[in-house]
Fold this protein.
Amino acid sequence: MSAPEQGAARQAHLLIVDDEPVILQILRAVFEDQPYRVTTVATGSDARAVIAEQGCDILVTDKNLPDVGGLDLLRLAKERDPSTEVIVVTGYGSLETAIAAMELGAYDYVLKPLNNVFEIRRKVERALDRQRISRENTRLLAELRHKNDELQVALQEARELQIELIHSEKLAGIGTLAAGVAHEISSPLFGIMGLAEAILEESEIALVHDYAQEIVDYSTSIKDIVVELSDYSRSSSSEVHGSVHLDQIARDALRLVERSADVQGIEFRLQIPEDLRLLARVNEIQQVFVNLLKNAADAVRDRHGSDGGLVEIHAGRDGEQIWCEVRDNGVGIPAERLASVFDPFFTTKPPGKGTGLGLNVVWRLLTKYRGTVGIESEVGVGTAIRFKLPPQSD
Ligand SMILES: Nc1ncnc2c1ncn2[C@@H]1O[C@H](COP(=O)(O)OP(=O)(O)OP(=O)(O)O)[C@@H](O)[C@H]1O
Ligand SMILES: [Mg+2]
């Protein structure tokens, strides 16, 4: 075995195997002036040792070696590094041998006698070119897979963040609603206290019974208010999809918004056909309505105060799609701001009044349901937000 010639680290390693010393000598000479690290060996077992210890980029091997055959070396080299290219030299002019070699993954073959030694040099050069391209492709593919994995992770994180964002926006909105709820609870509570005091003073059993019944009624209405609010604050990811009535959801959302003390004097008109249904999470569609109605209420109050504000909710079918519109006669939005209203954190409300997430959440939820949303507005006239959803929204 001749010692491998030392070369630069990135030099291609060429392993040449032939049991005929003359041929080995010729081939060594052919590659002498080439920028490769060339190892020449005369037996299959020496070649096997080189492959096992160092591997090679290109293997040029005689097919018929007395000990380990050329095709076995081919297999060993490919096992160690599948990108190794192999050129088989076959002595019998036998095409069958050549075909067998190609089937095993040889890059090319050369027939003995070697009439044109430079032919083998060209084949080695071409094999190296192909190898370079295929290794580069493999590297790019791995990089792409890695990037793809990273993107998948980022996408999953973004999804989780979005769910969190939608939920926290809802919780922030509950602050406003809670003020109205407290207000609404206070009157039945006041009634209960009065009745309880009356019971303490009352000796007639029939009257005590009536008072107690009234206390039960007041308590039931408080319970209903609390249940509605806690239903709304529940995280929607735990809720299952179902066939829901748009009309019912809009009414529930309206009741939640109306509980806020600051909708007084605003007229809400709701006209949704009772049979409009879609497959969705009640909680999410309700959140869409709550946000749109809160915005509309703010806008009409800004323009009309507590007299003259009107918010209309209409819905219907447009072919397969379900459309819904929330229209108000509020302050309107200047044309140059229209493009920003769906952006997260865009708000014109004073600190503490708005987070600027309402419409962004509306947009996210509707997009999730494969819906679309559009806005029309004119300053001093009002705003209409219209969304469309496929009936079998998922
Ligand atoms: N119906 C409307 N009429 C007039 N302006 C509106 C209307 N709806 C939204 N806007 C404008 O779009 C901005 C963004 O609305 P969005 O609901 O996203 O946030 P917000 O209402 O300011 O705060 P949040 O809803 O998070 O409490 C509002 O600040 C307001 O300027
Ligand atoms: Mg809002």
